[in-house]
């Protein structure tokens, strides 16, 4: 190899190059650019080459200098070991010729052959390294003027004369005769210059990856240098060399990742993906910010190369370089680590679905041909920011049959390997070395920072990987048509805990071996059972059973049942002869609300797999319960304490004689009077009154028994009571006076009045609400052949006279006759006939809705001639909005088999009709919406309350809270013997319910609870409460 020339010209100032980073981040400076192009380093013999941590050119970088500061000062006198180390690794001070030059006294070992080597320049034209293109400029660019090349003999003679003139040494002194650091430094002779030059040649070839021969430190460093070091320092120098080599290899891997695979995908002919937008999207997802990371590592690699050239053959430290890199460039790695699961998922998905994409990675020559065809191998290409400009052929030779996934994972494994390398290097470093000594030592700081980054990245990667697995699983799900199942995919908290194959026993006529292979997924909110199939060349999971919410999922005992035998497929005859079977391990889960019909026994292929499923289900349920507990949409507050008890066999006789058993609560009515809040309770033993949060003060105020309907009209100061199949009204004042013991119950008989007429018949039920801005009371009577709806309007009571006796007389006189309505509750509109299966009524904004057994009707008592039409109206033609004829017919059958409970506003143009088993959507004209789809409840509801946008479905053991707009399940409350007592207006006011409380020696408690909203109810901006109440029915 030709001898590298000495460049004696002045060093040019550093120039910055533009990074290929797509984010246009600030690019690092490049000290090797001349005339706007990248060129090799030209080192000046009169000026020292410095690394990041070097000080100014008129001082010496000391071994004990803090490596992270460029202006560090001497900390203590150099030890003998440091002097020896400095002899081989420290950069020289500037040599300024001439008299009176201002500089310190030189150290004896400065100017050694290995130090002189810092100023030797090796031209890239002298190497065959596999890197294409000249580094001294290209094309018509003006070439830098350099001195004419001289012979090797002239260079050698000049260096020997210079060393002898400076140090006064001859060429006969050798390293073997040196006894200390001063002798070593002063014994550097002219014949060692060639060794230094040879070491630099090997180092340059190592930087260029020209040969694997120089990938080990011992093959690059002269034997004389190794002989003066102990085994620990030799190992440390090897560790530093290995660090630089791993950085070099990582950069090459990044260049392969981008310049072979990324550019190959973009310029493939024919295209791997015909749709250019989809191709660009795939490239953006898979390669993300890899170009930015490559720019960072090119700068890091060049700094390491520069440090090697400055301090070859013995490197004092590279920890300062890595510390600065880690402190300045964490964010790009964090972003890529967070994106890595999504990048891997996009790559693997495309591999499964695109044959051309699979073949692309196995045909490297085709990739190179396509890239060369579009000029991507041109050395002028702006895509290559590397000063050495590796050719595509060189990069292709470095692939070494690596899987594409390994390049993606390389971003994470790089940090792990770096931590291991630095830890190993610290073990071989002397204790008082500044790399490891002191609180500000760089290696411990780097290692601790790397561990922290890796720990956070590991947790985030697991979480992100679960999110990607969740999205992949949900993307393949195929539900049965007609049913709306909301898994709440877009919630950031969704994740997939476990998914995998399980088996179930089936009837023999389903599959010949009597087993069904399923694919089961456990989400953080649902347990989903599917069967994998191939449709259109793509995998999909057909949901074979309705997903079970984790709130209802239970595990049946025993947890470790004995295994059962399964015959392998195609082994019927062989099984009989050889007994070729496998063991299957069962476990059972079921739906808590329907344990008989929704019970599933699954079989795992091993006992460890069964235990894994069971433990994961328990973990998912615990996380779900904890999350739901801390994020309730509705919370409950007990109001009645243990006041309403029933006697049971557990209550001893001596205790029963001292207790008052009030029985079970049938109805509740809240009202406010005289600044106090009261609750009126109805039980089988009478009607009781008490303050809202003082259960001990509950007292009996009326003797009516088995009253199932109470309504308080707050604005009119009245309580409506349905007793003995008649409707009565009582004022708040009289009830409170009786409760305070200021009057006896006979006063209620005087102040109260009958609201329903005698001739109307027996009152079945009644409801009160606002309609057309008026308080209306509607009650339904039933005779032998007909059912009628009577609507009354509540009016203000005339001002009272000052004479109470006269007022009592007036009260008796104003009592209505059997054939007339009360003056305070006149009739509103006309009496309407209803279907005989009418079960409930509700007040809309301008109409009244009547719930029947299977349908809902809209009526107007002021317009009895108005055509009454059912809701939903199935007399529609199939369309995109209404659905197919099959879907309409299916929904119609479901409605006829169920019981209607009410209606609630869903969207501005939709309403939800609530049935006992499901809910469906209708337009403002009553026609089916959303293609006649429906939402099934997990339990059969007995009543419903609305707090927009939520519907609270009450069943004996559960309160199921769903979002009305989506149908999604948001909360489940599990109790016993739950009953809705009071729901108030549809959008405001308290919701009161009763449920079973404690059951002990004091009796079985019936607790009255208030269901409180814990989240604000969303109201459309600009829409008043009055408009929100059924404005769609203003026909």
From TrEMBL:
The residues covered by the CNH domain are 662-988
The record ties this protein, via Pfam families, to: CNH (PF00780), RhoGEF (PF00621)
GO molecular function, one example?
A: guanyl-nucleotide exchange factor activity
Q: Does the keyword rRNA processing apply?
A: no
PH domain location, by residue?
495-622
Tell me the domain of life: Eukaryota
Which regions are flagged for Polar residues bias?
Answer: 43-65
- Indicate the segments forming the DH domain, all copies: 235-471
Region: Disordered; residue ranges are 1-65, 88-107, 130-154
Record flagged with keyword Nucleotide-binding? no
By what name is this protein known? RhoGEF domain protein
